[in-house]
Specification:
The chain is 47% helix and 7% strand. The chain has 274 residues and is mostly helical. It holds the Pfam family Phage_int_SAM_1.
Length: 274
């Protein structure tokens, strides 16, 4: 007796992800593809850690276990988990179309519901608007503090408090990751204390932009503990309230109405201020 799995074609999670991203690159923008890449990277990592080397073997129970793992491992807000699980649902629906998983598996992805008032309270952005803002920042405000704050928060989904706690030494450009570290005795805490400490993978684009921000734009200031904050001002470590104001200004419609060219990457990868 034939089962639904008899019609599936074996494929590793990483291979399915690469095919998915190549497919998406044909009909969406580069920044959207990068968002898909970041969110599906966690899923591939989870599969590897749980010895799932064939997409055919995924079940609804696996998807529930992944959801719980992602929420705990990432310390995600409900709206961020909603966005990330929505991406996994899109990924698995596409996988069903190429017979990598059962065609209805995507329906078993449990996407947390978010009430409209929660979206407003968390300043939720539609992906299309966020990508338009990123494109504008990359073109007219490359490696500015607005670009650094917005892209960092949008791509990683970390809290403002976690971004505020980052030092330059926590950014590993070569390994393409940032490291969240709980330093309660030096003025910065993570919401979950030591349990919130973890490395977070970032895209090549974000790594390069942060490197340029550090080298060319970031005010060279230390805080009261002689630490070098990643996000700084002329006074030292950037305050959380300042970060929120930057986000409000960057997402306001008028922000893209009057572009001011700040820093651009040159043709050979160098950076020049204009």
């Amino acid at each position: 007796m034939r089962t639904i799995h008899d019609t599936l074609e074996p494929i590793e999670p990483s291979a399915a992800r690469e095919l998915f991203l190549k497919h998406k690159a044909t009909d969406v923008g580069e920044n959207t593809v990068q968002s898909y890449a970041y969110r599906t990277d966690h899923f591939v990592r989870w599969c590897d850690e749980n010895d799932i080397d064939n997409m055919n073997d995924l079940s609804g129970r696996d998807l529930q276990e992944y959801r719980l793992w992602r929420q705990e491992e990432g310390d995600l807000k409900k709206i961020t988990l909603h966005q990330q699980m929505s991406t996994i649902r899109v990924f698995l629906k596409w996988c069903g179309s190429i017979e990598a998983v059962p065609a209805d598996l995507y329906e078993k992805v449990m996407v947390p519901r978010v009430r409209p008032e929660q979206e407003r309270n968390d300043e939720t952005l539609e992906a299309e608007k966020a990508e338009a803002i990123l494109d504008h920042l990359a073109k007219f405000h490359y490696a500015s503090r607005e670009h650094a704050v917005f892209m960092l928060l949008w791509e990683t989904g970390i809290r403002i408090g976690a971004a505020n706690a980052l030092d330059i030494s926590d950014v590993d450009v070569e390994e393409k990751q940032i490291n969240l570290v709980h330093r309660p005795n030096q003025g910065t805490r993570l919401k979950n204390g030591r349990g919130g400490e973890r490395p977070i993978a970032i895209s090549t684009e974000l790594a390069e932009m942060l490197e340029d921000y550090i080298d060319y734009t970031r005010p060279e200031k230390t805080d009261e503990y002689d630490r070098e904050p990643l996000l700084s001002t002329s006074q030292g470590r950037m305050a959380r309230a300042t970060m929120r104001r930057l986000i409000y200004r960057t997402t306001a419609p008028c922000f893209r109405g009057s572009p001011v060219l700040t820093v651009l990457r040159g043709a050979q990868g160098s950076v020049a201020s204009l």
